[in-house]
Amino acid sequence: MSMHATPILYLNMGGEMLYVLQQRLKAQKIDVDKTVQVLNDVTAALLNVTVLSSVFKKGPVIAVASLRPTLECAALSSIMKLDNSSMDKLFDLMTMMVKYQLTVVTGPKEVILLTLNHIDAMHDMVSNPTGKECVALVHQMVIDFYSELTFDEVWRTRYDCLQELEPYRVRVSILLRLGLQNEDTSFNITSKKYDEKYKENRHILCNQKIKDVDPNKNCGSSFQLFGDRETLLGRNIYSSTYGMTEKLKPLQHNSNFLKDCGTKAELRMLATQLGTEETYERPFTLNLFSNEENITSNNKNKCNIDKSNSEKEEQEVEKTKINEDYKNKLDNVYADFHENELEKTARSMDLLDLLDEIE
Q1: What is the pLDDT of residues 277-305, one digit of tens each?
Q2: What is the DSSP letter of 282?
Q3: Which of 17, 82, 178, 265 yields a CA-CA distance of 20 to 30 A from 26?
Q4: DSSP-assigned letter for residue 216
């Protein structure tokens, strides 16, 4: 049994709570000053010295059910109010996101890195100097607490955390939508940029201390304050920029490429039609003859007038047809973009109902 599991659970669940609260405040268009106050207050409560002293004490992992009251007190420490239903949903989101992250990590170092990603986010959320100093102190506490452990000890810490999270089985829409979770609440382990390949190298690394391994030989990630963590785990999954640095899968790339080509083709067709409007017969004509050439008898003038009227009617019909063609093409292009806008609106509504996304 590991004696170092509690900080992993507490800090990562607290970080996920802040992500959800930040997104909710943004989605509900809460005043900036109030948003800043809430994030400062909740972060300060999470990183309270008394709480951290008990969390970082070496000993058997504290049960998630026992951590919940402390996390709830932190969530309610500011002006924000949450009813019991919202608190339950918030807690389920926190536990399932941490369970997913610890399930798919590729090695012991990534366990620490995903925790540091949450701490980095806390540093970005707080705005007062005292809060930032507190977050920097917690960062150093994590480094001191885990860097002296061997790779295998950190891996056992992960196992104990997962054992504690095992009873929690909830479907989360954002994970389902991203293909990271299945309907039976199990998780999909997908290929990603960061991969320690610990299972393959366990026989070499297991007894080495985390601090003694050259980072350049182990995915190049950094434990330093403001360092590059490399892994996406522990970052804000609700952010619109989440995962943007990763390359698209071939299937996704081809699908988006074909869709873009279709849209561009429609736009080019529209631009061509609008740009070559002069090629169509205009609904009026210009008389380019001299006065002498235009001297005719009254009968001829009458004939010309009749002919002109007839041509004008034909031109009006042609103009109507052209306008209809334009309208149809514009409708097609509009429909294409309108569909995209509906998708964006749907995603926006998903964010607005974020706490209702647990099925």
Answers
A1: 443 343 433 333 334 444 344 555 545 55
A2: P
A3: 178
A4: G
Tally DSSP H helices, then E strands, for the chain. Answer: 12, 0
Token digits of residue 160: 């104990």
The pLDDT tens digits for 319-351 are: 555 555 555 555 554 454 444 444 444 443 333
Query: Taking a C-beta distance cutoff of 8 angstroms, is the pair 86, 358 a contact?
Result: no
How many angstroms separate the Cα of 202 from the Cα of each of 155, 196, 297, 331?
A: 10, 10, 107, 60
**Tokens 């860097």 — which residue?**
147
Place of tokens 């800043």: 36
The tokens describing 39, both together, are: 């994030």
Helices 32-46/129-146 angle, 10° precision: 40
Which sign, positive or negative, has the C-alpha torsion 152, 154, 160, 161?
negative
Asked whether 157 and 8 are in contact (CB, 8 A), the reply is yes
* Rounded (10°) angle between helices 108-125 and 6-27: 40
